[in-house]
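Incident log, structure service

09:12 report received: a user says their structure output differs between two submissions of the same chain.
09:20 pulled the input from the user's history:
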Amino acid sequence: MLLQKKIILISLITGVVLMLAKFSAYILTNSNFILTDAAESIVNVVASSFAFFSIYLSSQPRDENHPYGHGKIEYFSVFIEGTLILIAGLVIIIKATYGIFHPNIIHDLLTGAVIISITGVVNGGLGFYMISKGRSIPSITIEADGRHLITDMVTSAGLVVGLLLMYFTRIELLDSLLSIVVGAYIVFTGYKLVRKSVGGLMDEADFDVVTEVVKFLNDKRRDEWIDIHNFRAQKYGNELHIDCHLTLPYYFDLNRVHEEVSMVDKLINSDVTKTELFIHADPCLPDCCHYCNMPNCPVRAEPKTEDIIWTMDRVIRNKKHFE
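09:34 re-ran on a clean worker, output below:
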């Protein structure tokens, strides 16, 4: 968690410095196009500030009011960041549209292009670093902040190209037209972040994680594991929780049941992903016999006649495989 705070603090300090640089470029050039980048920098600073607080809060231990921890605050952080990006993009489009009918007198475009180039390179390097660290920690807040910086780098690159185009063509209308294009891209980026955060807040299934875990269990399944069902995965910030039902032979004693459940837990945590598992053990029924692999079963009601591959569609259902 200390590493997360350090990364966000670096992002915050860098964001403040680059914001001042971009507004200096705007004051120097009076270009709406540069203002698009400067306005987004305000979002960077506000979002990084909230991200710093959210990471602090998500690191707090579980308590009576929050038995699953405080990790979901990170989704709120991403939601705030995405919303601010959306607002910034809409403001840019509105101002640029106004500029079509009431154009500004722009100047010193080459100097402005140099300043924006430097800020773009800095944002790009920091953004790729944050995405990499956000995935390895993992932290949705750091990854989202990194993607925002990459977006800022892309818009800065487009900004530099546009400024050079304006300088050589002397077509001032390009200032507003290009601003509208960049504003639309910023709005789309904000929408994607909001969509991702709402999905997390609504406990949307993480299909990538579920598919990976189910495939692994299917490859490593033991004869004793008759079926797995009611499989669910949820993320609380950087913590992953998995619930499932594991059907075992009904004549296993409690020690044997605990051994099999612990083996599932150990395999997933050591070979796939770090997670907290809640595994409910179900006793088998006579109707399970036709797909049960248990050798020398003393209570088998009928011979095995079917091999059932565990797939996501099958294991997420809240019923045994014969139902």
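09:41 both user submissions now match this output. Likely a transient worker issue. Closing.
09:42 reviewer note: The chain has two domains: 2-201, 207-315. The two ends are 45 Å apart (CA to CA).
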